[in-house]
Amino acid sequence: MSLIELADLKMHLRVDSDDEDAAIQGYLTAAEAAVANRIQRNIIAADQSPVEGTDAIAMTGDIRAAILLLAGTLYEYRETMVENVKPSMAYESLLAPYRVWHG
């Protein structure tokens, strides 16, 4: 189950049709996993409380925005072989405060 509703991502993408729902859901799932991987934490719903002693973090507005930005990038560049397509600086800035640094 996604943390963000498909309808919310479609609104972000300005997609009105249901023709690409399966693909868009795939981009959303991938973006959520990538963001969790980037910050090295499990993301849970905003209305849940993280279990003490775990690395889980409740969804925040900036984590949500980062997921939407990344899903949008995956959607926009879905059929290209463009090299060096990277998430924007906004993506990195939104996630920086939540990253767990191992060293």
Quick structural summary:
This protein has 103 residues and is mainly α. Helix content is 49%, strand content 4%.
Q: How does this model look, in words?
A:
- With 103 residues, the protein is mainly α.
- The protein contains four helices and two strands; from the N terminus they run ααββαα.
- A two-stranded parallel sheet has the order 1-2.
- Helix 2 packs across helix 3 and helix 3 runs antiparallel to helix 4.
- The longest helix is centred in the N-terminal third of the chain and has 19 residues.
- The protein is globular.
- The relative contact order is 0.18.
- The mean pLDDT is 89.
List the helices and strands and how they pair.
Layout lengths: L5 H8 L7 H19 L3 E2 L12 E2 L2 H16 L12 H7 L8
Parallel strand pairs: 1-2
Helix pairs in contact: 2-3, 3-4
Question: Mean pLDDT, nearest integer?
Answer: 89
Rg, nearest Å: 14 Å
- Net shape: globular
Structural class estimated from helices and strands: mainly alpha
Described by strand count, sense and barrel closure, the largest sheet is: 2 strands, parallel
What string gives the helices and strands in order? Answer: HHEEHH
The count of DSSP E runs of length 2 or more, i.e. the number of strands, is: 2
Question: Which strand order do you get reading across the main beta sheet?
Answer: 1-2
Distance between the amino and carboxyl termini: 32 Å
How many helical elements?
4
Strand content: under 5%
Report the uncertain regions: none
Helix content class: 40-55%
